Amino acid sequence: MRVLNVPNTLTISRIVIIPVLITTILYQKYRYALYLFIAAALTDMFDGLAARITNQKTALGTFLDPLADKFLLVSSFVLFAVYGWIPKWLAIAVISRDIIVVIGWFLLYMITHTSRIEPVLTGKVAIAMQLIVLAYILLRINVSSLPPLPGPFLMLTAGVTIISGLQYIYKGFKITNAP
């Protein structure tokens, strides 16, 4: 199976978009930032779907896809929090969960030599909600008549993010048979 297939090309495209997205925000080209963010979010949706439909799952794709998600979300949440577009507590919740997941993955690999962790449903929901928050913020910057995101939606996003982090911790303990 070829490593540079359609799903992996989509994932690599997402990784390439990230520094361009950050640059457009830094230079206040918010319309381009919105388009790039939507393109990155769509590649996130379609890379896994394409891999399953075409039976082109690869070890590279399995490694790069969650890494691309982390880079996109963490860089966006940091930048959005610094600019005051999202509450800092939300950025802290998202980034903390990702740090915990990455450290947990590393420890799990060191202990069990297992590198594949199946995603949990709440993890997928959390990422979807995080992408919605970020896309809406960029949309609102471009369309000033849109209302701000409701606080309860931001709290729900943080809550689902935290719950998914706890589920990954639990899953890691189960895999290692830790008490």
Q: Helices and strands in order, then pairings?
A:
Blueprint: H1 6-26, H2 30-53, H3 59-82, H4 88-112, H5 121-142, H6 151-176
Helix pairs in contact: 1-2, 1-3, 2-3, 2-5, 3-4, 3-5, 4-6, 5-6
The assigned CATH architecture is: Up-down Bundle
Total helices: the number is 6
User: Which structural category do the helix and sheet elements fall into?
Assistant: mainly alpha
CATH class: Mainly Alpha
| Beta-strand segment tally | 0
Q: Short summary of the structure?
A:
With 179 residues, this protein is mainly α. The protein has helices spanning 6-26, 30-53, 59-82, 88-112, 121-142, 151-176. It has a single domain, classed as Four Helix Bundle (Hemerythrin (Met), subunit A).
